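Just wondering, does anyone understand what follows?

——
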Amino acid sequence: LAVPSLLGSTRASAAFVLADAQPERALVLMHEALEAKEAHRLRGMPVHSILGDVAERLGDQRQALEFFALGMEEQHWLGNTEMVGRMLRRIGLRLVDHDPEAATITIGAGTAFSHGWTLTERVVEDQRRGIEALNAALGETRCAELLAQGAAMDEHDAVLAARATTERALSDKPPDDAA
C-alpha cells in the first residue's frame, strides 16, 4: 500500500504512540512523516498537530511550538475548529515564559474552541500548571481578564494572533509593549 497520505499519517501516529517508549524510533518516524508530506505536497494531511506533541515529549519545545502553529494552520484550513482550539491551547502553553499576556489570550481562545474531554491527562496537567504560572506572573484578576478576552475572539482572529505571537517567539523577538 503506497498511498503517500496514508503512509505519512500512519508514521505520524506511530511516532505519537512511540514517543515515550521508543524516542529514537519516534524521531525517525516523525521525520519520515514530514518527508512524505513535503515530497507529495499533501496539504490535506494534517500531521503537524500530532508531531507537535511528539516533539514536545522528545524535549524539543521550539520545534513543538513550530509544529503546533503549523498544525493550527492545517486544522484551520480544514475547518476543524475543535483541533484549532487544541492547537491554540498547546501554543499558549509553549508561550507562557515568552509572552505571558499573549499566552493567556491564546489559551483562552483555545479553551473556547475545544472541549476539555479531548485532551490527554498530560496536557490537562500541563495546562493547569501553565495557568498557575500565568496567575503568578500576571495576577489572578488580569489572567481571568485575558482568558476572557481570548475566549471572546473569533477563530480566524485567534489564529492570526497566535501566528504573530508564535513568529515573534520563534524569532526570539520580545513582545510589543503596546497591548
